[in-house]
């Protein structure tokens, strides 16, 4: 089976690449070649092109036909329009990596299924993903474009710390500094290891029954944000000092972070994975978060522990905490 990944070396796509190759797929990556050294995947054939450059990409794929194309880096309707132009007649299946944040936010009921309405008034990122999905369904109805939609939730790997602020939060924990947690920390969240996600995605590649279908692929483990922070702190060998701040308050300090909270992480989200299990029977998430955290902390200690904390995140947390202290809303 000949498969093209647009991207291929990122947080999610690297695990999917490794699994696809292990299953004997002839895997091509189409990317600019910039991140190859960060997550080098042995056994791939790389087509060097910028997917945003239509002529360059068309030249790179000239004469090739793929059983499946997976676009990991389409975020706006224009990206999907470009994909449709490029791959009509050149693939038997086009897989778009959307986002579980497209679902109704906040959800009226849990767990979320693929039938949950798509409606996120808080986050432009999610609305763009919805627009991308709508383009694909319209193109299928009009011309039979063979799409499959995948909606990951919060998917992590050893190189991606699933906390707002990343390694800077770990730095602060190690130094005994307080860290900001949105809300009261009791909302329930779903974190998925990228190797577990890969089983679901790769299992759909080449599956004709998955055409004109959408799937979310997530873990079945549900954790509060307080628990997520404390699991990471425990692996560091420290007790975290958590400062709880309403998400809308955080948004007033930083719109980008605020949008991702109000449009996603501030709300409890759990998912019913019945559909992906029906199509991919071997999908069965194995990696619990306390296991995945060991990989994260080992990577952090070996690669980023000695990096300077992100100045913006560090200053942002200091500012929020200072203002709360001044207003006598917290005490340290």
Could you walk me through the main structural features you see in this protein, from its secondary elements to its overall organization?
This protein is of the alpha/beta class and 332 residues long. The chain folds into 2 domains: 2-156 and 191-217, NAD(P)-binding Rossmann-like Domain (Rossmann fold, 3-Layer(aba) Sandwich); 167-189 and 223-267 and 289-326, UDP-galactose 4-epimerase, domain 1 (Alpha-Beta Complex), CATH 3.90.25. The protein has 12 helices and 12 strands. The chain has a 7-stranded parallel beta sheet with strand order 3-2-1-4-5-6-10, with helices on both faces. Helix 1 packs across helix 6 (194-204), helix 3 (77-87) packs parallel to helix 4 and helix 8 packs antiparallel against helix 9 (255-265). The chain is globular and about 65 Å long.
Helix-strand layout with pairing:
Elements: E1 2-6, H1 13-22, E2 26-31, E3 45-48, H2 54-60, E4 68-71, H3 77-87, E5 94-97, H4 124-143, E6 147-152, E7 154-156, H5 167-174, E8 179-182, E9 188-193, H6 194-204, E10 213-217, E11 222-224, H7 225-236, E12 242-245, H8 247-253, H9 255-265, H10 274-279, H11 289-304, H12 311-326
Parallel strand pairs: 1-2, 1-4, 2-3, 4-5, 5-6, 6-10, 7-9, 8-12
Antiparallel strand pairs: 9-11
